[in-house]
Amino acid sequence: MINFYKSLSSKIERLFIYIIKFVKFFVLSIFSLIYKENCIICGCALQNNGFSAQNNTCSKNVNLLCKTCAKTVEFLSGFPQGVYDGVEIYSATIYKTTMRQLIHKLKFNHKKDVCHVLAYFLFEYYKKIEAYKKECGKFLPSLENLVIVPVPTNKNNIKQRGYNNVFEIAKEFSNLLRAPFSKNLLLKIKDTKPQYKLGPKERVKNVSGCFNINLKEVEKFKGKTVLIIDDIYTTGATINEIIKVLKKNNIENIFCITLSKVV
Ligand SMILES: [Zn+2]
Asked: Measured in angstroms, how far is the CA atom of residue 99 from the centroid of ligand 1?
């Protein structure tokens, strides 16, 4: 009799597990039918074709881009694309096709989640710099000695978008890299015109004197290497102006990475 009850209870248990599994499968199927994910660039369904910006360290699971579109992103090599006053300036990718569209989606189309994909590209590129440095017998600063700083933008742009696009990329990048982040080390003290509307000389004039640093944050990150993050590198006017301001305030250990470069 006891054996009969034991066997019955194990059968009920198994049946219960099957029911749970079925309900879970059913709910997930309905959910994926309603909220079908598509590639943000070409519109194809992402079911088995998604480029996953997810890895063990990623703070958020995002799947916005298909593998085909992801492959069109052209990475640059891990050596500096430019040097200004001894500061190395790296650019991760070429500003064209998919990369240009992704940056525009984040900047102008309120697609805030795109920052996760862009930060992931930046993270992948960081490994390339590490490999390049290693080849030269050099090293990047250890992560605890680093502080990631985004290029600030006009207050009006933040108001319109609801966020600072470069801040969002840099923040997510710092999560992936597990390195400290400071959104307030650099301050924008003067509104500027959009750089893309100006010629090389006007760009320099436009950004001249528009940045300052926050002395309280400098104290907090004293002795650290500042890693400046920006989205697009064209003539370098913005990055150069930032380097000038940092050096003027005795911050000497600096390097910069822009997500893309206009070539
Ligand atoms: Zn696609």
From this structure: 12
